[in-house]
Structure formats: structure tokens, C-alpha cells
Specification:
Layout: H1 6-9, E1 16-17, H2 28-33, H3 52-55, H4 100-105, E2 111-115, E3 119-123, H5 129-133, E4 140-143, E5 148-152, E6 156-161, E7 171-175, E8 189-193, E9 203-207, E10 213-217, H6 223-226, E11 237-239, E12 249-254, E13 260-264, E14 269-275, E15 281-287, H7 303-306, E16 316-321, E17 330-337, E18 341-348, E19 353-360, H8 362-372, H9 374-377, E20 386-392, H10 399-404, E21 419-428, E22 433-442, E23 447-455, E24 471-473, E25 480-484, E26 488-493, H11 503-508, E27 517-521, E28 530-536, E29 556-561, E30 565-571, H12 587-596, H13 617-632, H14 646-666, H15 673-706, H16 713-720, H17 738-745, H18 750-766, H19 772-800, E31 811-812, E32 815-816, H20 831-851, H21 859-887, H22 899-913, H23 915-920, H24 928-937, H25 941-959, H26 966-990, H27 992-1006, H28 1008-1012, H29 1021-1028, H30 1033-1042, H31 1047-1061, H32 1065-1089, H33 1103-1137, H34 1147-1158, H35 1167-1181, H36 1188-1197, H37 1212-1223, H38 1226-1243, H39 1246-1252, H40 1258-1266, H41 1269-1280, H42 1315-1339, H43 1341-1378
Antiparallel strand pairs: 1-7, 2-3, 3-30, 4-5, 5-6, 6-7, 8-9, 9-10, 10-11, 12-13, 13-14, 14-15, 16-17, 17-18, 18-19, 20-21, 21-22, 22-23, 24-25, 25-26, 26-27, 28-29, 29-30, 31-32
Helix pairs in contact: 12-13, 12-14, 13-14, 13-15, 14-15, 15-19, 16-18, 18-19, 18-20, 19-20, 19-21, 20-21, 21-22, 21-24, 24-25, 25-26, 25-27, 27-29, 30-31, 31-32, 32-33, 33-37, 34-35, 36-37, 36-38, 37-38, 38-42, 41-43
Length: 1379
């Protein structure tokens, strides 16, 4: 009987297709061969076993209606295209249903989209394949309380159990027999019908809004077989009688068991039933009396009514029925218009009805809204008042919930004449809409307003283009209201708060205190829209074992999102809303939702902060820091569990931190600078943790490949870290993977992990826990961890600086240049990290130095360690720099009163200043480029020069190797050209600083010739270098002549060198002589080249400059002459001392002999004076250039024997006078002259002289005076300076004017000398002064010195007269001879 026939292949009425059916045999013969087994339900998709030829006609093309040639009935849409009937049709077989116990115990497979302490939003997995495939299709529907969802398009109706755990649930697809004529037509209206007595599955009724066509399927299961089994269409299809022209069905309400309520665009309301009194399928429609629109008289109404759109006394926004019918087959129905008019009926199953209420509540609602929110009401226009939706308050609440809800006592009443409504109202504001929940208690003759609950979290106006209208749901136990808009769901608490002093006042005023309220926003793209909604509430009735109804403990709203599926918004603990600690929307919860659940870019919800938040910027910043810390520490529930892929887990946490910052920016939070840096540092740690995890896995694999213990240093560090510095594992709970556990819970202490790398290696080495092979590997890993961790953290900081709003910060080497005020301690430069990274670098250097050539070690690891040295050194220097800048910031509370931390910061500063020493050590490893890069990064210019010079020397030595192969020689030469070019570029880039440092290295390593012949210098830096160094003036003047051809500067250099720098007598004499010669040569060159040499009347303006230059040169030559004369005097004294040194064996003996012979006049009891003379005499013997005062000390203290020849003149005091006159000025000259004459006076035996004059003639006295040294000195003064104007400064100073010299203060040479030495010298000066005073007072020194000077002057005058006479006689004789 199941064999298809021609009649069965024709299109049947109200065809329904159930896509998930099992194919049946195609012949009757095969049917008899099948065993009579129980039919099983198979988990098939919609498209399996679908006959392609049969499936094609199910697709309708929406276009204008046309007449049908295949049926006598008029449809309101196009028929399906004419096509040959398929040869065979397959009857789907219903599979076995799951037991209720199986459905309850198995999870629904839902995906949590977001959650907080009040609710959880989850996306259910069940969604028909047809709806998945066409996300932009225009459809809407309903969600039934019994667990089914209905989706309606212009051509199809789809029913499925939305809570099923399968992604492709069992689906019932119905092809509508009368599809819409145009795409812009209103979508069909539909509802699920309660199951009949013969089945447990609901039926389906669909109403076409324009034509009024009604189609009813008694069961969704049997509907798929109606067409195949050729059931009659009688009783399953009908039309609404008496519809006006242009009138449409606007709403359809399931009011079972009293049937269905239809609301029309005209404001009319009708009752529709789909079963007769016997329960058989039968459609009947009856308009209710007292509707909110016009009701025509007569059967068809008047012609005027037929051709009018409506009598439209009201625009019905909602029709609702009571939640708990008091009588079987009877419901109370209320319809409301947008402007606040309400009308109610009591409707029975047969269509009989009575009018109950008819009120206009607009004014009352406005008054109560104004009282509840006066400030907000002032922003609104009362003319814009509208009712958006309403719902009957639930009845039959438990006693405890009666006291918890804010609804009035009408909730307890069972009187059907009193109806309790919750109305959602709206008022327009300039910014959007102001919504309120208002409680209305309706009775036969009156009404009153109860609770008023303003909605503050949502203000977007209702979209006119939305496929579904806003819906209000208040599930039992009436503590939470759900308001469903087209792209948002509002959750608002209507629970009673615990009693407080303000509670009674608010209750009397019918004002609900501010309680929990939040908004769940959907993405704003065109395809995402809520097209159907419903609610779930805790089930209190008998257990329906075969029902698809979802069993829930807490109320929820369920919405169907186009293209995405069903989303459930359920409270976590409904009783908490009425507790003393009700859930609150906090800054932390809003951020956590956006960050934790908004990571994916294709997320169904949006957390972009489209609405204003009620929190201060400071609260948001504090919440952001708290959330960031919890993400890093995995204290967020989503991140708190172990995962198989730690890499993905770390990436998710890292992305959450980035999204946190993006969310704060989207919300326009004013984030302070310290918070931004705190958030960035947490993100840095997460990024570095991901890098280190990958390194850990790489280390483990490399160790296995090398045959070592696979336990990497990362694992060792985790175990070594002190228990107080990490999260303990719970061994009893199976937490055995310590490494994963650390990366899960302790990344926030990453700086401890990096610092512990050195501590672990130190402990392993100290306790000899590993052999050298494993120890080498651990040292390498320690350096690699420190280098990689810090480098990746700083790189991340540079890359993300702008994202964290810190783009204006100035970074250098990844760290702040300045501005550490108020910032937390950088994790990359803590005391522990800075100290241990440096020690790790030193450990690598020592290990390579001591074990670098050990063949038993893995050379690959050693080479890797060697190549890592520049990087880890760089990381250490950066850490030093950052720590110093942070710790020494003025007013830093962490170091201000902490002397230990300040001391460590200063040590770090010293270490960084000495970076040249640490970097130069790396030259030994031949890591030229890497070390050079680090040196340049830290502006270590001398180090750069050292590195490049060493590389040049290495290349030169390699190129000079005769055994070098040609290919290697070519590479070496090429590298030399490259390094020469690089040096030249650095000369140009860094100027004198780099050039001078380079020449310093060349001079130290290769000598003067390398400086003069350095080829990369194209800018003359060698000349500037030599001229800038006083100690290189001996080379500079040669460079001036040979390279620069600058004789003038060469002369100046030589003169400066000779006058100020040179310390050797012979060198100074040569340099001054050459300098004088060069000056004279340059002067001669200028004279010869000057135009004035050929033009006697040159009136050029340059004469003044020329004279000034000439005077300057003459002054220089005069200074040279003075210095040369002083050198001559020093040489003269040396020649007097030299005979004493003939028998000396060494320099020490020379000095001893010289002191014994020539130091006898220096009192031995004055050790300081004797030491002063000995030091000066030692320098004289070493041919050092003596300072003027030192030379005067020698000249005035030295004793020069006559060696048996009394005729040898004693001229040292005259020389002392000459030295003072040539080199001293001012008070120093005056005091020095006094000192010279005092010692001159003390040199002769004036006491004996004074006694010897008794009974002597004048000639004898004069002869005796001529034998004194004073006479010789005065004689040389008068003889060499006969001009009275010149020799005044050389005249003997009266002895009385010399008294007291240097007895209380010494000359400037002894400033800064030890007090004991100064005191001893002043005693020597006082001793000289006392001796002089004694000679003056007791031996007539003043008279004899004057007489002696006069005698010397007379002798010189006499000699000059004789020379004049001889000259005159010689001239006369020469004249006579010529005659």
C-alpha cells in the first residue's frame, strides 16, 4: 500500500516534509523481504536520502501571483514550477525517541558566550541546516515553552527541538501551500498547537497575514506523511472570513486551551480555533465584540468598510493572555494600543467571549513614571508616550517568592476579574528612549498603577525595520524581567531589596529602588538580529517524560538569532536577586565580559561599550588592573583549568589582555599613566611566558636529541623557586606537571623566574649535581632564558606602546628615557633580575674561558653560548640603565628611604658607566658585528673604536699569513674594505668622539706610525686628534709639517710643547730651538710673499693686523729665548755638579755623592728643607726641566767647590736673579728676590769679615770684599746690565727689608702640602731669618753689603772707562794707519 502511484505523486495540500527520514525500499517485493524489526530513529541530517528531483520543487521563487493551472483553489503566491513528478517517493520512517532520563543527564553542548555573577549567556548547538545555510534569509518565529522553536519564512515553516544536544537536530520542514506574493509582504504568522490525545508532539498552525489563509497540521510528526498518504484537505485549511480590504493579521497569540487570538492591523481582535468540540481538526474564526478597531454590521459589512483600510481606533501593539487559567478551556485576553488603551475579554474554547475591562491608562502611567523618575522625565516629551509590550504577571508563586518580588499583592489573587499586567513603556528623549516597567492592576470598573521600575541601561529606540517586536518576559518566580529588542536583551531585577530606612518610603511612593540591570548587546551587522523569543521558567508541574521541555532551575529568556541559532540568557541563582547581597553590575564584571568572552572576532555578542557606563574613570582603571592581574594569574574561571595546549592557553590570555586595553579605549576611559604602564607590563609578561614555553619545548627536544636528561632548565627553575614565590601544586588532585602549573598560575611573577635561572645553575655547579656536559647545557639555557625573556619583553613593549596609549613616551633601547615618576618598578629591571642577568653573563664568560676548548663538551652548545654573549651582555646593560633611571627618580617611594636599594642603584650606575670594560672582553671571541652593535646601541664610542681596530689588526695579520688560500685571502681583503668603509662612515657619523677614540687605540696598540698612516680617515681627524692632545704635541708638529704643511702651527706646537709641556732639558732645548726656527722661517716666508715687500707705499688696512701678529711672534721668540737661557743656566749648574759624579755606580749613588758634596749648606736639622733640595738635585741629575722656583732653590742652596782654582767665578746667585727676572712677576717676583738676597747675604762669613777689618787699610778691606760671593754677584749684575733703568730689579735689597720673609706663610708651591712639612719648612725659613737678623744687629751687615755693592759698581765703571780709552786709542791708531 506504500507503493507510490500517479495520484500520490501529485502535489497535495498543506504539504509538509520531514527531511531527516530513513529511505524505504522502492518495491513491494523488497518490502516483504525485510524483517519485522522495530523501527529505530536514526541520527540523519536533513539532506541525507533526499531525492534530488523531489527536493527541487520545494524551493519557491518569490514573485507576483499568477493563476494556477493545476488547482482550483486560489493561492496568494506563485505555485511551484511545473516539473515531471519523480518516479519514486520515499516514505521517511520515524526513529526511536530518547528517553527522558537520557535527555536530562546529557549536556546540551551549549557554548558560553558570556557570564557574570548574575547570569550566563550560552549559545545552544541545535540549529537546522537550512537556517545555517542562509544567514541573511528574512524570517521570524516563536519559541514554545515546551521546548520547540518555530521559524517562518515566506515559503517554509521549520520546527525543531531547540535544546537538543545535536548540532543538526531532528527537523520538521513544512512547505507552505500559500506562500507570500512579494518579498516585502508581512511574514506568515504561526504557532505550535498543543499535542492531541493521539500524539505527544505538537501541531502547527500558520496564518498568511494578507490573504488570511490558515493551514493546520495536527502533528509535526504526521505532517510529513500527509502528502504521501493522500489525506484529504478538509478541515486542515481555511480562510479568515470578513477581512477588510487592506486589513492584515498583525499578531497571533496562542491562548490554548481557549484557542488562538488574532490581532488585525485595523485594531480588531478575533478568536481562532483549530479543533471542534470533539477534538477533530476544524478551523473556525470569530471576531470579538468591543475590539479596539471598527467592527462592521452585517455579515460582510458595508461597502464603505470593505474599501477602507480600517476603522483604526487603535494600533494594537500586543495581545496577551493570562498565565494560569482558572477554568478549563477559558482564558483572559487583553489587547493594548500604543497610546495606552487596554481592552480585556474572557474567551472560551468555543469562541464565546465576554468583555471584562476597557481602560485608558495613559495618564496614570505618565504620572507614576514622572513620580518614579522625575529627573529623567524632564528630558522626555509626554506626547511620545507609547506602550511597547506587556505581559501578565505570573500566578501561583511560592510563598517565599511572594515576599521577594516587588509586584503588588495582586499576585496572590485568584480572582479572574482582577488582572495584573506588567507594561513596558517608552518615552522619547533627545538621546533615544526612556523605558519603564509599570505594574497595572485591572478590575472591572477601575485600575491602578503599582510598581514602577525605570530602565536606565538601555535607551536605543525601537527599530521600525525589525522583524520582531520587542517582547517583555517575566518568568516565575517574578524576580527578574527580560526585555528582548531586535539586537539586545535587557535583564532587570524586580526583586524586593532587604528592608532599610529608605525601603518604606520608596514602597509608599511605588518607586523601585535601583537594583540589578544589564544589557546584552548583539553585533550590529545586518545579518545578526533577534527574530524570535520566548522564556523558560522552573517547571513545577508533573514530569513529562516524553516532553522536549528544557528542565531548568532558574528562569531564562531564549532568543533565536538569525543565522546564529538559539541563545539562552539564564540567571545563575535567582534567589540572590532578593538577598542581602544581590548581584551587581560592577566595572570589573563589564570588563571581564568584554575581555574574556569577546576575544574571538566573530563573536555573536559585542562588548564595544556602545552605552555609557555608570562607573567613574578611577573605578574602571582599578577594575582594569585587577582584571589584568587575574588574567595573568589565571584566576578567571575560563582560564583557571589545565589545558592540553599551554601555548594556546597563554595566547588566549595574552589576547585577553590586549582586548582589555582595546575595550578601555572603546569605552573612552581616561586612564592614568601608571595604570597604562601596569597593564602593559602584565601584557609583556604574558607574551614572554608564551616565548619561554616554546623555548621549554624546544629545549626538551634538543636535549633528547643530544642524549641528555630531557628535563630542561625551565623545569628545574620551577622546582627550585621557593614555595613562598609560587603557587603550590595539589598532588592529591593529580597536579603533577609543575611546569604547566607554573605557567598557569605564576606568570605574574615572571621576574622571579628569570632571575632564578642563575640561582639554579649556581646551585647545580656548587653541589656538583650535574656533569660538565649537562652543566654546559644548563648555563646556555640560563643565558638564553634571560636574554630571550628580556629581549622579547622589550620588543613587545616597543610594538604595543601606541596600543596602550603611550605612543608619546620616549623610549631608548626599549626603556623609558625619563619620566619614571609614579610608575611601578619595571619587571625587566628589578634588583634580582638586574643582578642575576649580569652574573649569568659573567658565568658564561668564565665558563667559555676555562672550558671553551674541552673536547668532551658539546661544541655546538659552546658555540651557541659564545654567540649569545653579546646579547645577554646587552640585556644586562639595558637592565642596569632602566633600574638606575627608575630607582634614582626623585621622590621614588620605593627607594627614597631605602639605603640598601639606593646603594644598589649607585652600584648599577657604576657598572653601566664601566660598560667599556665588559664589552671589550667580548673581542676575544671574535664576535665583531654583534659586539659592535651592542656598543653602538649603548653609545660606547671608545668600545666601538676598540672593536673595529682589533678587527682591522686581525684581518691584517690574516692577510699577511703566507699560507692563506686565495679564496680566503679574497674574503679577507673584501672584509677589510668593508671595515675601512664602516670606519669612515663612523668618522662622519660620530665625528671627533669616534675618531679620537680610534686613534687612541691605534696609538696604544700600533704606535705613532699607525696614527699618521691610517687610511680610512678622509676628514683630517688625525690632525685634530694630535692637536687636541698635549701629550702628543711631539707627534703633532711632525704631522703639521709632513701632512698638513702648516709650518706656523708646527712652530706654535713646538713652542707650546717646549714652554709648557716638555720635562726633559735636551728635548726642550731642541723643541724650542726648532720652534724658534720655524717661527722665523714662517716670518721670512710672509715677508717675501707680502706685497709690502715690493711696495714702499702700501696703505693696506691689514698693516695693523700684521703689526699685531709680528708683535705676538716677537713675544713668543722672547719667551723662547728666556727658556733657552734658563736651560743654559740649568746646564751650567749641572756642569758644575758633574765632576762629583765620576765615581758613582748608579743613579742612587750619584744623588748621594751630589748631596754629600753640594748639599752641605742645607741645614741637616731641617729635614723638610733638605728633602726639598734633594728632590730638586735629583731632577737636575736626571736632566728634567726645573720650574723657576725649584731652579732658584738649587742656585741659592748649592755649594760649588772651586777645586783648587780660586779664579773660577761663583755666578749662581746672579743666575738666580736672571731666572726670577725671566719667569716671575708681581709679588712672587718680589718675594723671590728677597729670598735670593737673603741667602746671598748668608753665604759669606760677614761676622769674620767684620772682625778682620780692624787695623786694615782701605785697600785691604776692598780686597777682602772683592773675595765675597756678594761682590761677584753685584759685579755680574753691573757688568751685564749697565743701564740703570734695566738693572734696578737686580740691585741688592737692603737686608732690613728682607726680615720676616716666609716665616709665617710659604710660597704657593706648598699649598696643599701636609701641615708637618709646611711647619718644618717655615722653621727653616725662620732659622735663615734669625741668622740674617743677627748679622744685621751685631755684625753691621747692612753697611758691608752696601759698601760691597758700591765697590762692585765702581770696579765695573772703572773697567768700562778703561775699555773706552782703549777703544779710543785703537780708533785713533786705525785712523793714522789709513792716512
Amino acid at each position: 500500500m506504500f507503493t507510490p502511484s500517479a495520484s500520490a505523486e501529485r502535489e497535495g495540500p498543506a504539504r509538509g516534509t520531514r527531511s531527516r527520514r530513513r529511505q524505504r525500499p522502492t518495491s513491494s517485493d523488497s518490502l516483504h523481504l525485510q524483517p519485522k524489526a522495530k523501527r529505530q530513529r536514526l541520527p540523519l541530517t536533513e539532506t541525507i536520502f533526499t531525492n534530488p528531483e523531489a527536493a527541487a520543487p520545494e524551493t519557491f521563487e518569490v514573485k507576483p501571483a499568477r493563476s494556477s493551472k493545476t488547482t482550483d483553489m486560489r493561492r496568494d503566491g506563485p505555485e511551484k514550477n511545473s516539473a515531471p513528478a519523480p518516479k519514486k517517493e520515499i516514505l521517511g520512517v520515524r526513529s526511536k525517541k530518547h528517553k527522558a532520563g537520557e535527555r536530562a543527564t546529557k549536556g546540551d553542548g551549549s557554548v558560553v558566550l558570556t557570564t557574570n555573577n548574575a547570569y550566563v549567556v550560552s549559545k545552544l548547538v541545535a540549529l537546522p541546516d537550512r537556517l545555517k545555510g542562509d544567514a541573511n534569509a528574512r524570517n521570524h518565529g516563536t519559541i514554545d515553552l515546551n521546548g520547540y522553536a518555530l521559524s517562518l519564512s515566506h515559503t517554509h515553516a521549520i520546527v525543531w527541538a531547540y535544546a537538543a544536544p545535536q548540532q543538526s537536530p531532528e527537523t520538521f520542514t513544512f512547505l507552505l501551500p500559500y506562500p507570500s506574493a512579494r518579498q516585502s509582504d508581512p511574514l506568515p504568522l504561526g504557532a505550535l498547537v498543543s499535542a492531541s490525545a493521539s500524539t505527544h508532539e505538537p501541531g502547527l498552525v500558520v496564518v498568511m497575514p494578507i490573504s488570511g489563509k490558515i493551514t493546520y497540521w495536527e502533528s509535526i510528526l504526521s505532517a510529513a506523511t500527509l502528502d504521501l498518504m493522500r489525506q484529504q484537505r478538509n478541515g486542515v485549511e481555511d480562510s479568515i472570513p470578513g477581512m477588510f480590504h487592506g486589513e492584515t493579521v498583525a499578531q497571533m497569540l496562542n491562548a490554548e486551551p481557549a484557542g488562538f487570538i488574532l490581532a488585525f492591523s485595523s485594531g480588531r481582535v478575533a478568536h481562532m480555533s483549530v479543533r471542534d468540540t470533539q477534538g477533530r481538526p476544524s478551523i473556525s474564526v470569530q471576531f470579538l465584540r468591543g475590539s479596539l478597531g471598527s467592527t462592521p454590521s452585517g455579515i460582510f459589512g458595508s461597502i464603505r468598510t470593505v474599501f477602507s483600510h480600517s476603522g483604526g481606533r487603535g494600533d494594537i501593539v500586543a495581545v496577551r493572555c493570562d498565565r494560569s487559567p482558572t477554568k478549563r478551556g477559558e482564558r483572559v485576553v487583553v489587547a493594548a494600543t500604543a497610546k495606552g488603551k487596554l481592552h480585556g475579554w474572557k474567551v472560551q474554547r468555543t469562541g464565546a467571549h465576554d468583555s471584562l475591562v476597557d481602560h485608558d491608562a495613559r495618564d496614570a502611567l505618565l504620572n507614576n513614571i514622572q513620580a518614579a523618575a522625575p529627573e529623567k522625565f524632564t528630558e522626555c516629551s509626554p506626547e511620545t508616550f507609547e506602550i511597547v509590550d506587556f505581559i501578565f504577571a505570573p500566578k501561583g508563586l511560592e510563598n517565599k517568592y511572594m515576599a521577594m518580588t516587588r509586584l503588588s499583592e495582586a499576585t496572590r489573587s485568584d480572582d479572574d476579574s482582577i488582572q495584573q499586567l506588567i507594561v513596558l513603556t517608552s518615552l522619547r528623549t533627545q538621546a533615544g528612549c526612556f523605558y519603564c516597567l509599570c505594574e497595572l492592576i485591572l478590575s472591572l470598573g477601575s485600575y491602578q498603577v503599582g510598581m514602577v521600575r525605570p530602565i536606565n541601561a538601555y535607551s536605543s529606540p525601537v527599530s521600525a525595520l525589525a522583524l520582531s517586536k520587542p517582547r517583555l518576559y517575566i518568568p516565575k518566580p517574578a524576580l527578574v524581567a527580560y526585555i528582548v529588542f531586535d539586537r539586545a536583551v535587557v535583564i532587570a531585577s524586580i526583586a524586593a531589596l532587604p528592608e532599610s530606612p529608605d525601603f518604606q518610603l520608596h514602597q509608599d511612593a511605588h518607586i523601585l529602588q535601583s537594583t540589578f540591570e544589564d544589557v546584552i548587546d548583539l553585533q550590529q551587522d545586518n545579518s545578526t538580529e533577534i527574530v524570535a523569543s520566548g522564556f523558560e521558567e522552573p517547571h513545577q508541574g508533573p514530569d513529562e517524560s516524553r516532553s522536549h521541555r528544557f528542565k531548568t532551575r532558574n528562569p531564562a529568556a531564549v532568543v533565536l538569532v538569525r543565522g546564529a541559532g538559539v541563545v539562552r540568557v539564564a540567571t545563575n541563582d535567582i534567589d540572590r536577586f532578593a538577598s542581602e547581597c544581590p548581584p551587581q553590575v560592577t566595572a570589573r564584571s563589564k570588563l571581564e565580559q568584554a575581555v574574556v568572552y569577546g576575544i574571538k572576532g566573530d563573536h555573536l555578542l559585542t562588548f564595544s561599550g556602545r552605552r555609557d557606563h555608570p562607573f567613574t574613570h578611577k573605578e574602571m582603571c582599578a577594575a582594569a588592573v585587577e582584571l589584568s592581574n587575574d588574567v595573568v594569574a589565571s584566576k578567571i574561571p575560563l582560564f583557571s583549568t589545565m589545558t592540553t595546549s599551554m601555548e594556546n592557553h597563554i595566547e588566549a590570555r595574552s589576547e585577553a589582555l590586549n582586548r582589555l586595553m582595546a575595550q578601555l579605549n572603546a569605552m573612552h576611559i581616561e586612564i592614568d599613566r601608571a595604570t597604562r604602564w601596569t597593564l602593559l607590563q602584565n601584557a609583556e609578561k604574558m607574551h614572554v611566558a608564551g616565548v619561554l614555553w616554546k623555548k621549554h619545548e624546544a629545549y626538551t627536544e634538543e636535549r633528547r636529541a643530544q642524549g641528555l636528561d630531557p628535563k630542561s632548565l625551565v623545569a628545574e627553575i620551577v622546582e627550585f623557586i621557593h614555595a613562598d614565590q609560587k603557587h603550590d601544586v595539589n598532588i592529591k588532585a593529580g597536579e603533577v606537571d609543575r611546569v604547566r602549573h607554573w605557567f598557569l598560575h605564576d606568570v605574574w611573577r615572571l621576574e622571579i623566574f628569570i632571575a632564578w635561572a642563575y640561582e639554579v645553575v649556581k646551585s647545580i655547579y656548587k653541589d656538583r649535581l650535574k656533569d660538565e656536559l649537562n652543566l654546559s647545557r644548563y648555563i646556555f639555557e640560563a643565558a638564553h632564558i634571560g636574554s630571550t625573556g628580556l629581549s622579547s619583553g622589550l620588543d613587545y613593549r616597543r610594538n604595543k606602546l601606541g596600543s596602550y596609549g603611550l605612543g608619546a613616551e620616549r623610549l631608548e633601547n626599549g626603556i623609558l628615557v625619563a619620566g619614571y615618576e609614579g610608575l611601578p618598578e619595571p619587571w625587566t629591571a628589578t634588583n634580582f633580575v638586574t643582578n642575576n642577568v649580569g652574573r649569568t653573563a659573567e658565568l658564561c664568560d668564565r665558563w667559555l674561558t676555562s672550558h671553551g676548548n674541552h673536547q668532551n663538551l658539546d661544541q655546538v652548545t659552546m658555540q651557541a653560548m659564545r654567540e649569545l654573549l653579546p646579547k645577554i651582555t646587552d640585556n644586562w646593560l639595558v637592565a642596569l640603565q632602566e633600574h638606575v633611571r627608575w630607582a634614582l627618580t626623585p621622590g621614588n617611594p620605593h627607594t627614597h628611604d631605602n639605603q640598601a636599594r639606593l646603594s644598589f642603584a649607585h652600584e648599577c650606575q657604576k657598572a653601566y658607566d664601566d660598560r667599556h670594560t665588559h664589552l671589550v672582553k667580548l673581542i676575544a671571541y671574535g664576535l665583531w658585528n654583534d659586539t659592535l652593535e651592542v656598543a653602538e646601541k649603548h653609545k660606547a664610542i671608545p668600545t666601538m673604536a676598540e672593536i673595529m681596530v682589533h678587527e682591522i689588526m686581525t684581518l691584517q695579520a690574516r692577510r699577511a699569513d703566507p699560507t692563506l688560500e686565495e679564496e680566503e685571502l679574497t674574503r679577507t681583503s673584501q672584509r677589510m674594505r668593508e671595515i675601512d668603509l664602516a670606519v669612515g662612515e663612523n668618522f662622519e657619523k660620530y665625528g671627533d668622539s669616534f675618531a679620537f677614540a680610534t686613534y687612541d687605540v691605534l696609538l696604544r696598540l700600533q704606535g705613532v706610525e699607525a696614527v699618521l698612516d691610517f687610511t680610512p680617515d678622509k676628514y683630517g681627524y688625525s690632525t685634530r686628534f694630535l692637536r687636541s692632545r698635549p701629550d702628543l704635541e711631539k707627534i703633532s708638529w711632525i704631522n703639521d709639517i709632513e701632512k698638513e704643511h702648516d709650518i706656523d702651527h708646527a712652530a706654535e706646537t713646538l713652542v707650546t710643547l717646549g714652554l709648557t709641556t716638555e720635562q726633559q732639558v735636551w728635548n726642550k732645548k731642541v723643541e724650542l730651538s726648532l720652534g724658534k726656527l720655524a717661527l722665523m722661517a714662517e716670518d721670512e716666508k710672509e715677508v717675501n710673499s707680502s706685497p709690502s715687500s715690493t711696495n714702499l707705499f702700501n696703505f693696506s688696512g691689514s698693516n695693523g693686523e700684521s703689526r699685531e701678529k709680528t708683535a705676538k711672534k716677537e713675544g713668543r721668540i722672547s719667551a723662547i729665548d728666556n727658556q733657552l737661557e734658563m736651560i743654559k743656566i740649568q746646564d751650567s749648574i749641572y756642569s758644575q755638579v758633574f765632576p762629583t759624579l765620576q765615581n758613582a755606580l748608579d743613579e742612587s749613588a750619584e744623588l748621594q755623592l751630589a748631596m754629600e758634596t753640594h748639599g752641605v749648606l742645607v741645614p741637616k736639622n731641617h729635614k723638610a728643607a733638605r728633602q726639598l733640595f734633594e728632590n730638586a738635585l735629583s731632577r737636575l741629575l736626571r736632566h728634567e726641566v726645573l720650574e723657576p722656583l725649584t731652579l732658584i732653590d738649587i742656585l741659592t742652596w748649592i755649594y760649588i767647590p772651586r777645586y783648587g782654582n780660586d779664579e773660577v767665578p761663583q755666578t749662581q746667585f746672579y743666575y738666580a736673579l736672571r731666572v726670577s727676572a725671566m719667569s716671575l712677576q708681581g709679588d712672587v717676583l718680589k718675594n723671590t728676590l728677597k729670598l735670593i738676597w737673603r741667602r746671598q747675604y748668608l753665604r759669606d762669613e760677614w761676622a769674620a769679615f767684620n772682625e778682620s777689618t780692624t787695623l786694615q787699610s782701605d785697600d785691604a778691606v776692598t780686597e777682602a770684599a772683592q773675595k765675597t760671593m756678594l761682590y761677584e754677584t753685584c759685579y755680574y749684575v753691573e757688568h751685564n746690565f749697565p743701564d740703570p733703568n734695566t738693572n734696578q730689579q737686580y740691585k741688592p735689597i737692603p737686608s732690613s727689608q728682607i726680615l720676616g720673609l716666609y716665616t709665617h706663610e710659604l710660597d704657593s708651591r706648598f699649598d696643599g702640602k701636609p701641615p708637618g712639612q709646611r711647619k718644618s719648612l717655615m722653621l727653616a725659613m725662620k732659622d735663615e731669618d734669625e741668622k740674617l737678623r743677627d748679622l744685621i744687629e751685631h755684625h753691621r751687615l747692612g753697611n758691608w753689603t752696601t759698601a760691597t755693592a758700591y765697590a762692585a759698581e765702581g770696579m765695573v765703571m772703572s773697567e768700562m772707562d778703561q775699555m773706552t780709552k782703549r777703544g779710543a786709542m785703537t780708533g785713533q791708531m786705525n785712523g793714522n794707519t789709513m792716512k
